Amino acid sequence: MTMKHKVFSRKIGLLAIGLLLCSGISLGFAGNIRLGKLRVEPEIGYKLEYNDNVALVNTEEQTDYIHTITPGILLKYEGSTPGNFIAAGYKTDIVVYNDFDENNYEAHKPFFSLGFKSPMGFYLRAADSYIKTADPYGASNQYGEGRKTRRWNNTFDFALGYEFGGKYGIEGSYRNFLLRYDGEEDEWQNRRDHWYAFDLFYKLAEKTSVFGEYRHTQGEYDEQNNGVSGWTDATSQDYTLDDYFIGVRFDPGAKLRGEIKIGYGRKNFENELDKSGCQYVNQTSWVAETEVRYTPTERTALSWKLKRSIEGSPSESSSSYLNTLMGLDIKHSLTKQFSLGAGIDWNRNDYSDENLAGAPKRYFSIYTARTGFEWQIRQWFTGGMEYMYKSKSANNSYYDGETYDNNVFSLSLNAVF
Fold first, then answer.
1. Please, are residues 383 and 412 in contact by the beta-carbon 8 Å criterion?
2. Contact criterion met (CB below 8 Å) for 192 and 178
3. pLDDT tens, position by position, for the chain (417 residues)?
4. Is residue 12 within a helix (H) or strand (E), and if so which, with residue range?
5. Of 327, 363, 321, nearest to 345 (Cα)?
6. How far apart are CA 383 and CA 387, in angstroms?
């Protein structure tokens, strides 16, 4: 271990000891700081992780210990009427590898949100979140998974709605998503999305509503249109995506909360041929955006998710893929301070076409299992331990180079003041 690593490890140890010593101090506030209606919530966390396959590779796996310090702060002003608030905050991850220090990175995450609801039934919501990172976990479409990639993205959301008659509601929303990579070899993945949605609601009960939604997305690969890596505006992966949903929404405050949402999606490419001269294949599929939480008792919570969407491909040999994710989690509190949790996810990536000569059809199955416990040492101070196993397998040995197995053990401490 180098002197730099020894110094950092010593600082980490002192931080952990300091947090533990602080757990014996009785603070004069109940977990947060209030200045009138303004809540100020600083926090700091530390995680020590053992990872047996840091590069997520199929052979010659490399192990390492990874330290993560996560300071942050939240400021929230709450109005006298529920739904009226302004919030802003900032979090950062400082990540240091014991051996493979070339993987060290920082992630910066400022965010802002506000909500307004009038007695007449009008409401609006707005939020903006920015993430600048270089983590090796890959973007949302798994591009760059296993290697350090410098990138940033920004998501802006805005919604305007009206509730009338006590039973009905109407809402329009807009999202702007921007993704940018620093490396020239990655810029062909730069993308901008404009997302428009229209919803109609009908309230079945006090906390249960049914709804229908239409959503249109216009996706543009800016750098492909500008000629990066041999692409042109006549071959780029620009697309439109139309989604139609029906669903049920359960408002917070009941045993069942969240949203069940299922429908039909259609992706159309703006161009006919890609840069290799292969024809784009438009896609249709059923889609889902479901995530619900059920608390049968005060001590037990069950969470279920089902998500299916048409995603942009992380490789040039395929234009897009169907991403299907299903997961189940359970958390049970043995006492007021001690809880256990476990969960399992199944994720399938089904590529629509494969443009490489002689390449078979491609899909991957990714299984993730996790278990752990959380200890509420003080109202403001928690500790925990978790084990996670993740396995990615392919339908054909041709793609074995993209498969892996990964075991991760972690210990964490977190203080919220």
1. yes
2. yes
3. 454 444 444 444 444 444 444 443 334 444 468 888 899 999 999 999 999 999 999 998 999 999 999 999 999 998 888 789 999 999 999 999 999 999 999 999 999 999 999 989 999 999 999 999 999 988 888 898 889 999 999 999 999 999 998 899 999 999 999 999 999 999 999 999 999 999 999 999 888 999 999 999 999 999 999 999 999 999 999 999 999 999 999 988 778 999 999 999 999 999 999 998 888 989 999 999 999 999 999 999 999 999 999 999 888 888 889 999 999 999 999 999 999 999 999 999 998 776 666 778 889 999 999 999 999 999 899 999 999 999 999 999 999 999 999 999 999 999 998
4. helix 3-22
5. 327
6. 14
Cα–Cα distance, 40 to 18 (Å, whole number): 22
Distances (CA, A) of 212 to 114, 162, 218, 316: 25, 15, 20, 35
Chain centroid to Cα 158, Å, comes to: 19
Beta strands in 83-164 (DSSP E): 85-97, 105-117, 122-133, 151-164
* Burial class of residue 349, CB neighbours in 10 A (0-12, 13-18, 19+): buried
CA distance 52 to 62: 6
Characterize the bridge pairing of strands 320-333 and 256-269. unpaired
Q: Which amino acid type is present at position 28?
A: G
Distance CA 126, CA 120 (A): 19
> DSSP letters along 28-79, please?
SSSSSEEETTEEEEEEEEEEEEEES-TT--SSS---EEEEEEEEEEEEEEE-
Q: How many residues does the chain have?
A: 417
The span from the CA of 60 to the CA of 53, in Å, is 9
Strands 122-133 and 33-35: unpaired
Residue 24 DSSP SS3: coil
Contacts of 1 (CB under 8 A, 6+ apart): 9, 98
Secondary-structure percent of the chain, ordered helix, strand, coil, rounded to 5: 10, 60, 30
**0.85 exceeded by the pTM?**
yes
Cα–Cα distance between 402 and 400 in angstroms, integer?
5
Distance CA 309, CA 286 (A): 8
> What are the beta bridge partners of residue 48?
67, 411
